[in-house]
């Protein structure tokens, strides 16, 4: 059997050639695995056919062997009947010869079928081993293909991110950040200045209010009026 003839489709040589030709190794591997699955199905079907033929041949051999033994027993029985006088000796010998002839015929067929059974058993066992090897390799390659697909997916995403990072204008980005920082600092300084101005206005207004609220001038004025009314002079001569 040459059921492994397509294995080289996914071998290293084909993979390297695919890469060099910028072909998709995953698609090629998937195609190779599809062909291997078909080979596995064909091999399984072939094994089943050979095994069925072996079983049928084994049954035929057993039947021939049984017939051979049966005719051998018949030859003995007919001669026993002749010995007891139940059958004429001449007739008994004729029947015994016929039974022995059939016995030899079925024995020869049994021997020939036995050789065929042995050959079919060997072939079916070899086919089964090859089928199991193909099945194990197919499962292993399918698992590796799933891993390869995942690695390709991750590497493609990583490549895209790295490509985007590589295409960034680093100098321009830094300059933009510096301008933004300067603008924010200017806004913060302006906010502090407005705060100081507001605080200064509040202080002046508070001072003014305090002055306006100070009634010492009114008290002195009232005291002076009382003193004038009483005739008290602030500057006695």
UniProtKB/TrEMBL annotation:
Under the heading Pfam families, the entry gives: PspA_IM30 (PF04012)
Instruction: Mark the transmembrane ranges.
Output: none
Which residues lie in coiled coils? Answer: 26-53, 124-158
Q: Which keywords fit this entry according to its UniProt record?
A: Coiled coil
Q: Which PANTHER family match?
A: MEMBRANE-ASSOCIATED PROTEIN VIPP1, CHLOROPLASTIC, PHAGE SHOCK PROTEIN A
Homology family: Belongs to the PspA/Vipp/IM30 family.
State what protein this is by name.
Phage shock protein A (PspA) family protein
Q: Which organism is it from?
A: Filimonas lacunae
